[in-house]
Amino acid sequence: MVRSFLRDTDLTPAEAAEVFELAHRYKKLRPAGVLDALRGQSWGLVFFKKSTRTRLSFEAGIYELGGHPMVLQADDLQISRGETVEDTAKIFGRFLHGIVVRTFEQDMVDTFAKYSGLPVVNALTDLLHPCQSYTDMFTMIEHFGKGSEDPECIRGKKFAFFGDTACNMAYSLALAGSMFGVDVALCGPEEFRPGRELDVLFDSAGLEKRYSFTSDPREAADGADVFYTDVWVSMGKESEKAERIKTMSPYQVNEKLVALGSKDSIFMHCLPAHSGEEVTEGVLRSEKSIVFDQAENRLHVQKAIVSWLVNKNRSLA
Ligand code: CP
Ligand code: NVA
Predict the structure, then answer these.
(1) Whole-model pTM?
(2) Residues 152-177 pLDDT 10s
(3) Which of 93, 255, 269, 317 could be stapled to 117 by a disulfide with Cβ–Cβ 3.0 to 4.6 Å?
């Protein structure tokens, strides 16, 4: 069975720690130039949704590992004219060595993995964004560990996510946070509270839940070490824009809310940010904000995920 990265829980916490160790190494090694972990390999990067960070970091990252990244916008593939995902995956399997997919349904990334016979990486679905949540845990380790690189340094940290708690980022952060012993408070309106599918993800992985839900922003902010938010209107939800902005506005991360957190708290956001909506310009640009370190780390962590999968699959072959 080929190993893929479709859900945060596809790696055990010990395996995720191996990925982070590798990511620390890649970050330090970057000035040394192109590596050969993916020499001779072509990877397809398929996008059914827009992207800036994910596309740049995967395309640069696969090149830097010595591989050949092929960016494929879904509209350019026969899939947009009705070819099935199953047949597309089988065709990819005949030409390529790995696939990165950004799409709507989680089922599509699962189908790519099932029929291609290749390692597949989930680069965001409506359900999950595990490359981002792993990067966020790595960035927290970097920040709170102050050079130690030990994942234990984030255990017990109070992590507060505000806004749409039924979105891909909220779910992936609840899962990845629980893997590393982080206490994740998901805070948002009742109408956008996490659905049963999040508990199903925990239960099917046998992962202990370390997340809670509250609709009271003061409760979630109280003593928080990390303030995190994401756009209120995720890709694909544009028709609900007005309603979402109205319902979520009490959950904006602003100066008053951050003042309730710990003195050394930090602000994180997966980006793109909609300044003035989910976060104020003041918080986004404050000294507490580590959003651009977070964005840069996508490169190092995804290089580590891809090369970890390649090595693991070699050893299983
Ligand atoms: N955070 C993130 O995935 O950004 P993009 O949508 O720009 O890829
Ligand atoms: N929740 C957002 C994340 C963007 C990186 C979306 O799905 O659009």
Answers:
(1) 0.98
(2) 999 999 999 999 999 999 999 999 99
(3) 93
From the CA of 135, the nearest ligand is 1
CA angle 46, 47, 53 (to 5 degrees): 110
CB-based burial of residue 2 (10 Å sphere; 0-12 exposed, 13-18 middle, 19+ buried)?
Answer: middle
Pocket of ligand 2 (CB under 6 A): 129, 167-169, 230-231, 234-235, 270
**Whether 75 is catalytic:** no
pLDDT band for position 2 (cuts 50, 70, 90):
very high
- Dihedral, CA of residue 49, residue 20, residue 68 and residue 235, to nearest 10: 0
- Residue matched to tokens 């000035």: 31
DSSP 209: P
The count of C-alpha atoms lying within 13 angstroms of the C-alpha of 1, restricted to the half-sphere facing its C-beta, is: 5
**Burial class of residue 241 (count of CB atoms within 10 Å of its CB; 0-12, 13-18, 19+):** exposed
Nearest CA, atom 7, ligand 1: 52
Catalytic site residue 270? yes
**Residue from 78, 135, 130, 81 nearest 101 by CA:** 130
Judge whether 298 counts as a catalytic residue.
yes
- Count of other CB atoms within 10 angstroms of residue 226: 27
Residue nearest atom 6 of ligand 1, based on CA coordinates: 51
Token duo for residue 162: 């505000």
Pair 49, 127: CB distance under 8 Å? no
